[in-house]
Amino acid sequence: METKHDRVAWLKGPAFQCEDSTTQVNRPWRLVLLGAPGVGKGTQAELLSERLGACHLSTGDVFRAAKCLAEGERSPSMSAALEYMRRGELVPDATVLEMVRERVGCLRCRGGFLLDGFPRTVKQAEALQGILKEQNVALDGVLSYELSIEEIVARLSGRRICENCKAVYHVTGRPPKTVGICDQCGSPIVQREDDRPEAVRVRLAAYDKSTTPLVDFYRKLGLLRPVAVGAFPEETFERTMAALQDDNKR
Ligand code: AP5
Hints:
There is one protein chain. The chain is α/β, with parallel strands linked by helices. The chain contains ten helices and eight strands. α2 packs across α10, α3 crosses α4 and α5 runs parallel beside α6.
């Protein structure tokens, strides 16, 4: 299945409607992608979205989209969130949950969803369980991506993103066809502000403290699907699909 979602209801909020909001898929997948910053969640989410038709819902992308708004168009809590993000710290749970609750329609999407970067704390995970129950939908699984710290740092320092469509590249591992230009939309590609070394250190520490406990949280719920990250995105994608096949057989 080849589906490209515009994700406008997720990125801009509930006042906007996605062009493909009524597209029905045979089997809507509802998945969470867990893993340290830079492990490749966003890259896998893009590949999974194309294959499964589910929409890629990244909380980091919502914050980055808010960054493009003029100061007066942002709520005070969103402006504060951007400061946390710039430093590499986690945004407070209350702000993140308010933002997700506003976009709860995306969790009912007929195509399913791929949550990337949310939940990130046990409090967020507990709240998500409650929200999904209210919406009468359930998670099919939680993909947990595992990679060494050295490799993660190398990936983050070489990562570049399209400032328009947010497509992800790597200067050596996944370069665009033309240096500095997005293959998909022709816009410039740039380095993320929080990929600077000092912010990366803070992000990895926050991950270790707040997000690692989610592995146990989801293992206890019987939802955890570990995936060892491979040398190339396509290899990791094959392993991800294999983990989901196992899921189908359960
Ligand atoms: P967020 O946007 O979620 O960032 P993150 O979790 O730090 O994850 P990344 O986007 O950095 O990495 P990724 O795993 O998606 O890797 P990618 O595919 O790009 O969050 C940013 C910030 O927002 C947070 O720090 C926080 O402040 C805030 N925030 C967001 N959600 C929050 C929440 N719920 N609660 C509180 N705060 C929140 O890949 C990385 C690089 O590696 C790329 O260059 C890619 O091309 C390359 N690559 C990928 N796969 C491979 C491979 N297999 N082989 C070789 N290279 C590869």
